[in-house]
Description:
Low-confidence stretches: 1-11
Distance between the termini: 114 Å
Largest sheet: none
Number of strands: 0
CATH topology of the largest domain: Rna Polymerase Sigma Factor, Chain: A
Strand content: under 5%
Radius of gyration: 35 Å
Shape: rod-shaped
Mean pLDDT: 77
Order of helices and strands: HHHHHHHHHH
Helix content: 55-70%
CATH architecture of the largest domain: Orthogonal Bundle
CATH class of the largest domain: Mainly Alpha
Amino acid sequence: MPELPPADRAAVDTTVELLARARAGDEGARDRLVERCLPPLRRWAHGRLPAFVRDLHDTADVVQDTVIAALGRLPSIEAHREGALQAYLRQALANRITDIIRYRRRRPDATDVPEDLHARDASPLEQAIGVENIRRYDAALGRLSDEDRQAIVARLELHYSYDDLAVALGKPTANAARVAVLRAMKRLAEAMRVPGAK
């Protein structure tokens, strides 16, 4: 029987034969394997990639990347019968789609938070000392000197470290800033004292 031209021979080569030749280093056989495997895998994958991941992943690209990666592991692929390679690739593709979905669910879309967004709940400070005490705190804070007010707000509300507070208050050391905060807190407590309370 005369040998078939390469184009006709490719049509009758079994996947098992192409796989064996590709393992032996035949690039043409490898290319024909890819050409043969891609269309059915694309049909199988159609609709399996959820819409929420399609903005980052095109189904055709996922199929192609999976096939290329799998064929990079040719020596470890066991396919001794027709259809075994296709089943192997379909499973690899299913695993890849599952990985993409898991990855996307763990990392939701980034969103910008508007600067004018306000919390509806009480702040941690309000929760700690209560709304009535907040009013007393604000009123007492208004009766303090600018330096005392700045020391208290920077330390309690803005959570400045004492090193940062020393810079903000113009103090020579963090310890000097700590002393300034303690003195300001004492004056604040006196200003907040409710008449008649002991």
